[in-house]
Structures are given as C-alpha cells and as structure tokens.
Amino acid sequence: MSAEDGYELWLRYRRVGDPGLLKRYRSALGTLVRQGGGPLQQSAADELVRGLGGLLGTRVRARASAPSGPALVVGTRTSSPLIRELVPESDLAGLGDEGYVVRRVTHRGTTRTVVAARADRGVLYGAFHLLRLVQTRQPLERVDLTERPAASLRVADHWDNRDGSIERGYAGRSFFDWEELPRLDDRYTDYARVLASLGINGAVINNVNTPADYLAEPFLTKLAALASVLRRYGITLYVTANFAAPIDLGRLTTADPFDAGVRDWWQRKAAEIYARIEDFGGFLVKANSEGRPGPLDYGRTHADGANLLAGALEPYGGIVMWRAFVHDSDAGWDRQGYRDFTPLDGKFADNAVVQIKNGPIDFQVREPAHPLFGALPNTNSMIELQVTQEYTGHSTHLCYLVPQWKEVLDFDTLKPAEGSTVAGVVTGQVYSYAHSGFAGVMNFGDDRDWTGSHLAAANTHGYGRLAWNPELSAEDLAAEWTRMTFGNDPEVVDTVSALLLGSWHTYEDYTAPLGVGYLTHPPDGSVTGHFDPSPFTTTQFHKSDRQGLGFDRTAATGDGYTELYAPAIRDIYESPADCPEELLLFLHHVPYTHRLADGTTVIQHIYDTHFDGADRVTGMRADWDALRGRVDHRRLADVHRRFDRQASEAVIWRDTLVAYWFELSRIRDERREWLQAIVAPADTALLAGERNELPVQVVNATGSGLRTNVSLDVPDGWRSEETVTYVDSRGDVTVKPAVVPPPVPALATLHARPVSGAVRVLDGSVRSLARTVVVPPAARCVHALDAGPGSAPVFKDYTRLSPDSTWHDGAGFGWVGNTPDATDTGLLDVVRRDYVRDSAAAVLRLRLPVGPCTAHLLTGDPNTFTKSLIVRVDGVERARSEQLDGREFTWLRVPLDGGGSGREVDLELSAKEKETWHLSACAVLADGQG
Predict the structure, then answer these.
(1) Bridge-based pairing state of the strands 723-727 and 706-713
(2) Burial environment of residue 213 by CB neighbours within 10 A (0 to 12, 13 to 18, 19 or more)
(3) In terms of DSSP H, where are the helices of 145-206?
(4) Which among 177, 190, 259, 362 is annotated as catalytic?
(5) Nearest to residue 479, comparing CAs of 136, 197, 199, 194?
(6) What distance, in Å, lies between the first and last C-alpha atoms of the chain?
(7) 386-409 average pLDDT score
(8) Which contiguous run of DSSP H or E holds residue 43?
(9) How far apart are CA 579 and CA 552, in angstroms?
(10) CB atoms < 10 A from the CB of 719, how many?
(11) Is the model's pLDDT at 523 over the cut of 90?
C-alpha cells in the first residue's frame, strides 16, 4: 500500500479493485463522448479523463463521435446533438444553470451513461457526481439522478492576510502567494477542482479584517490572474472590502455612504474592477464590529452601508454580502445582531445579502440557532458556518462539525410558521429571496494535506455537500468522505465514520457540556488563540460563581435573549425544566446541585463528562490504530500523532475545568478523588540567580485530610525546595516553595505538583503551571531597563524606558532621533505586560563601561503575534527574532564592547517592511555577570 500525503483530499482516483465491478464500469464508462461546449465543459472532460483513467486503470480519451457500443456522453442540449437525442428538454427545464441529470439511457438498442445539463456549469457538477459514484462503488445499471443546488450562493470564505498569515488558520500559511502572483502554479487549479467537486461556486480570498489594498493595484492584476483559474471551474471571485477604502485609497476625508464623493468613488472603483475581472462576484463586508470601520461611524445604518456598495455593483450583476456579526460588548453580544438588523428588514438592496453566523455568539461548540434566521422576511439572508475549527480544537482535535451544522439547519424557527427551518430560510424556500445560501470559513492552508490534519478535511467536504443539499445526513456524508479519502474497505468505512460522527459530542464532553460555552481565551490574533482552556478569564460568558454557573438569558430574570425567538420556542427556552439540556447553561444560571432529567446534578455531570470524554479520545486512537494494514502507513502515522496530541490536550481540558469548578463549588465528585494545585499569579517575573518564592494553592478534593508534599518541576540548572503541608478535605492551603533560576535571562514553564501517596493529581490543569520570565537583578546590570509607557508599573529596581526617554548629555541611555510608541496591555507580569513598539526604526543609545558586555532584549506580546525584532549595531545586524505567537516571548542576545575606556553604542531596533517591532526589556550585563 503506497504512502499518501493527503494532497489529493477526496479526489483520489484509485483503480477499482473488484474485478466484476471494474468490468462493468469499463464497459459503461470506458469511452467518453463530448460534443462542443466551452471552458467549463472542457474542465468537466479533463476531470473525467483524469478520474476515470485512474478508477478504470485504462486510458480514457474524449471524442466527438459516438461509438456503436456503450459510452459516457456528457454535454448540454445546446452543444451536443447526441444529448438532444438522449435527454428531453422537459427533463432539464427546471434545473437552472447548475443542475444536471446522471442517468442510464438505452437509445436505438445502445446503452449510454449520460451527464446532461442546461449549461456547462451543470455538466461540470454532474461529472464530479458521476466520479463520486464510481469512487464509492455505486452501481450504475439503473442510475437516474436529477440534481440542482438548494441555494444560489455556496461560498468559500478565506480569512487569509496579505503577509501570508491566516486568521484562524491551522494548516500552515496562505497558499495565495501575493509575492508571486500573477504568476500561477498548479495548486490554484487543484484548489478550484476541489471546490468544484463539492459544488462551491464562490470564493472570498481575503480576511474579513482586511486593509483596503485588495481593491487597488498591484492586487487587481493578481486577482485577475486568480479569477482566470477559478472561472474555468465555475467559481466566482469575491473580495472583502474595507468600508474605509475611500479614505485609505481615495484620499477622501470621509466614507459616509450619503456623501456624493464617496458614492462616486465606489462607482468608479467597481468599474475599474469589472474592467479587469468581468465576472467579479462582489464584496464581503465586516463593518462596525470589533473596531472595523462602517456606516455607523457616520450616524448611518448597516442598510445604508450595504446599499452604497450594492449600488456600485448592481450595473455589473455583483452582490454585497454584509455580515451580521456585530460585537461591540460582551454583555450584549447575544442580542446585538438581532437588534441591529431586524429594524432594517426590507431596507437592504435586492443585491445585498445579510450573512448570519449559525449562532448568536461566535462558532462555539454549542449554541442555539441564531434568532435572526426567519426574522428577516424581506431581506436576503445566508448562513455563515466555520469550517476551520477556531473554538473546536483547531486541526489538533478531531471534531466533525457536520452533525452540529445539521442541528442548526434542521432547527424550526417557526417564523413565519411551523416548518420554517433554518435550511429553508437560507435556501430561499421560506421567503422568496433573490439571493441566499451558505458561506463557510475555510480551513485550507499551504500544508501539503491542505487542512493540517487528514481528518479535518471531512469538515471541508461536509460543508460543501451541505451547501449543495442541506437535507443530506451526517451519516451519509461521513461514509461518503471516508470512501473517497481512504477507500471502500468496510472496516475502514465503519471505523472512520464512527470516529467522525462521535467526535463532536466527545469534544463537547471534555470541554463545554450543557452549552456553557466560551471557555477559551484570546490572544485573539494568534494561532493559539481560542485553543487552551481559560474559564477563569472568561467568567463574563459562563457566569460561574460559588453557587452555580450558566448565563441567565431569560426574559424573566436575565438579559431577555429568549424573547428574540418565536413564542413557542421562547417558552421552551425560558423554562429550565423544558429547556433542552444541551443548552441549559447557555440560557440559564443554575445551582451546581440542579438536577438533570436523569437525576444527576449539574456538577456531577460536569465531572462525569469531562473524565469520560477524555477517556474516549484514548479509545478513538486505539480504534484508528486498529486500521493498520488497511490505511497507508504515512497517513496512519500522521493521524496517530494527532490523536496522541488530542489525548494530551483532552487531559488538559479535563483537569483544568474539573479543578476550576471544584475550587468554586467545593462539591466532591461522587466517583473520583484528587488533589489539585493553583499557581497564582501564573505569569511571574523571577530574579535570575536569586531565591524566589512561588505561591501555590493546594486544594483537596478527597474525603479526608491529607499530608501533602508540594514541589516544583524546574528545568535543568535550576534549584527548587519541596514544601510539606496538611490540607483538610475540601479545603485549601497556600504554600510558597522556593526556586532559584540560573543567573542568566531566561523563559521557563514551572509545574507545581502536590503529592500524597497514591491520590490522583490533576496534573493537566493549566493553573498548575507558572510561565516565568527570568530577569537579571538590577544591581548586577550595567543597564536595567523596563520598556513601556511612563504610567505603567516598573520591575523591581529597574528604570523605565519610555518614549520620553530621549538621549541627552550625561544620560546613560536614551532614544536618538525617532521615538517609539508604547503600550500597556495590563496582562501577564510587570515585565511582559508592556512594551515600546514602532514600525519605523528607532535608535537606542547606551553608554557602556570598559570591556565586553552583552545586551539581553526581551520581545513578545501578551495578546497577539509579534513580528521579528531586528537589532543592528554600527549598521551590522547582530540579532533577529522569529515571529512569535501570542503570549510567546524570547530574549535576544547582542554582544557589545565598551573598549578600553568605555563608549556610547547605538542599537538600531527595526522590523521588516510594514511590520512592527516590540521591546519589553533591555538588560545589559558585563561579561562574566550572566
């Protein structure tokens, strides 16, 4: 069995192994007949040649004339006389430009397999459907399928940035290479093939948090090149537009949608774009949310803003997709979209579509369907799903989201009446929308396997197939994807399908059961954001306290969110007794002792699900490993490694959340006992080479008091002291074990471990970790500088290095020329919370004593990515940091020399073009001091 790298995704065309089935397929499909047609039909023929050549193990060529025997015939009645003979016009009449038939036809004694459509795009989709049938080993003798998409818009949204990073991307960097475009490579064609195989007909290629650059050169030339590839596969190119583009690009003083100059600018910009890309689809817009510019900045409405752009696009057939995700405050997040948009119903242009996330918050593992669905009868609406797993484990955790999406799509809004499902709303069946459909935030990157994990591609496949037909079942889609990706071995199909279908509930169990939600925390702009558990920093979302937990969203005692639904649903959601248990803590604040339908208390349910869910991951890994010999060794090993990490991360989630809610409730688990440790503060600055005490709280979740040893796991070269204490049952004691780091700047994670005989310890809890920065004592430094604004706290005995610290005669340090800006985030410890920063170079002058010394520069950011810090001395680069993720820091070491009499030296701090450097601290030590 040959090793595979996953690049082909589900478009694997391996030869059919069953001899009898292979013979029948070869007889029916071995000859391909295509008469006429344009580029889309050519793409269909190319895919059939490629696919059938692999599946049948024979060379397949397209020909214009029909043989005397069986053949595969593809085309439209317009392009193909043979199709006109085989398929009546009436059979295609209701299929539009994207529908098709796949059928077996006997004509004049000869059997033909037919893929026919009204338009070439339908032929392309039908060709992929036929290949899917063969890939999944379906019989063709009586095939007779008629398909058309449920919705007109089926869009892939990419949150890719111009620098190659991807917001919420977990599969490498962006494969849209803006440095190389308009030069094209084969990956763009393969990308288009993959989307077309699912029936996806649109792609937004840039982040919703976008600059305006994509609307001007050189990007228009690059976009035109991309569009030339996509259109061959029926995919329309869209771009996210920055609402402030008239200011940023047009040098206007306003972006007010009522301003005549602004309207004129957008009209001229649309004309410029369509002159380059005649089939350009239009704009996606995120406005007045999370700091983005928008019409509300000028006292206008979302409809005013959308209509401004819609008017510019309308002469060319373009549309604007206007996101309903508006997030100004956490307190009103659940209601804001509804309250902002329902008063505007009927005020949006016919070519504007409101794009609504599946739930009212932000792609959580469990949310109710967004109350906006069904509430906009006179406004085109579409649903936004997140294929990339921002809050559901990134590409590390297997979490198949199709069952979640099905629950939302099948939800009956009861607006305007029973049977008004979300699927019916977003496919234009409930209301007669001019435009409706699906948007999926994609999980593609430049990793060889596209999605960062072989199994994560199941979500991509499931999204596209549901966008085409939301009535498809999760079970059928899981089996279909498995067959196309790993083959048709029944053991493989059953095992992988079961792993997929159980994974969402497993992930939910060890993370956020009962709808409690939003237990992760930023850094928002980083790759690691929304991955690790952090319930202690997100209490505004789950409202946990000593008495209970959950967010009261009722009309009677809460924020009134339940009133946004139809009365019958409102009444169900309003009552803790009637509310679906999986949404209990999303909608209600209840005591820990509140009993569920099976008699279990909420706190015991939390304990049970977290332990059971984490245990199931180990079973999932074993089930996968049992496929050895049935799955190629490379993908088997890749997925095994993913399950290894998922098992470790599941323990972290389990221990962190179980420990958190026990510490609050002090209600013991009926089935288990343990000890847990909390290091506070978890982010700590330590003095290098000196004795530091680290406070550790030990909590006893057993039924008896325990004599406990408390130690710190430390790196090599460190010293630590063990502490002994006694902890009562359900009680806690804080001890202060000592630790001595080496006498050099460092960064290290320490682990607090309480031990009492064979009692279980929740070692996976993130609160048992101390993420430390080791800083040289000021007394040992030539310069000990804590960088940041003048108002921020300063590390012990250090001197503030702020934008005001300019060089002057007699100073020991200071800025020469340009002075940087400064930021205090208020996060982490006193050293890492703040920094100076700039996109321009700045020169820090230092007065050095006699002899060699070393400058240690700390760079990073408590929130988000930090770009490279480049340090030059006398014009020569001496150090450069790599890009760092949020909450990551590094010390740079820069050798210096004061010579025989001491001197002044200039450190030039800079970053790459259009990037920003950060400096948190600068400690200069004479050589031999550290």
Answers:
(1) antiparallel
(2) middle
(3) 186-198
(4) 362
(5) 136
(6) 55
(7) 98
(8) helix 39-56
(9) 12
(10) 12
(11) no
> d(Cα 157, Cα 155) in Å, to the nearest integer?
6
Q: What is the mean pLDDT of residues 643-665?
A: 98
User: By C-alpha distance, which of 308, 339, 302, 337 is closest to 322?
Assistant: 302
Amino acid 786: pLDDT: 98
- Going from the C-alpha of 536 to that of each of 166, 265, 399, 591, 618, the distances in angstroms are 28, 48, 24, 18, 27
CA 154 – CA 468 distance, rounded (Å): 7
**Closest listed residue to residue 39, CA positions, set 31, 47, 28:** 47
654 to 440, 507, 616, 700: CA distances (angstroms): 30, 11, 12, 17
Across the beta sheet with 32-34, the strand order is 62-63, 32-34, 71-76, 110-117, 100-107, 144-147
Determine which one of 390, 786, 829, 888 is catalytic. Answer: 390
Which amino acid is residue 255, in one-letter code? A
- Amino acid in position 192: A
Q: In what order do the strands lie in the sheet containing 683-687?
A: 683-687, 769-775, 746-755, 706-713, 723-727
Select from 332, 258, 345 the least CA-distant residue to 295.
258
| Cβ atoms 703, 666 nearer than 8 A | no
Q: To 5 degrees, how large is the angle CA 12–CA 15–CA 21?
A: 120
Name the token pair of 760. Answer: 């279980």
Q: Which amino acid is present at 254? A: T
Contact yes or no for 271/290 (Cβ under 8 A): no
Percent of the chain with pLDDT over 90: 96
Q: Which residues contact 598 (CB under 8 A, 6 or more apart)?
A: none
Task: Give the pLDDT score at 860.
Answer: 95
Q: CA–CA distance from 915 to each of 245, 837, 912 (Å)?
A: 21, 10, 5
User: One of 18, 290, 491, 571 is an active-site residue; which one?
Assistant: 290
Look up residue 833 and give its DSSP letter: S
Beta bridge partners of 72: 32, 113
Q: d(Cα 313, Cα 628) in Å, to the nearest integer? A: 54
Task: Give the Cα separation of 10 and 274 in Å (integer).
Answer: 34
Q: What does the pLDDT look like over 162-190, one tens digit per residue? A: 989 999 999 999 999 999 999 999 999 99
Length, in residues, of the chain? 930
390 assigned to active site: yes
| Average pLDDT estimate for 793-812 | 96
Return d(Cα 681, Cα 862) in angstroms, integer.
Answer: 15
Per residue in 217-259, pLDDT (tens digit) is: 999 999 999 999 999 999 999 999 999 999 999 999 999 999 9
pLDDT in tens, 770-782: 999 999 999 999 9
* pTM over the 0.85 mark: yes
- Annotated catalytic residue 297: no
Q: What percent of the chain has pLDDT over 70?
A: 99
Active site residue 290: yes
Minimal CA–CA distance to 925: which of 864, 857, 832? 857
Facing residues of 755 across strands? 709
DSSP symbol at 214: G
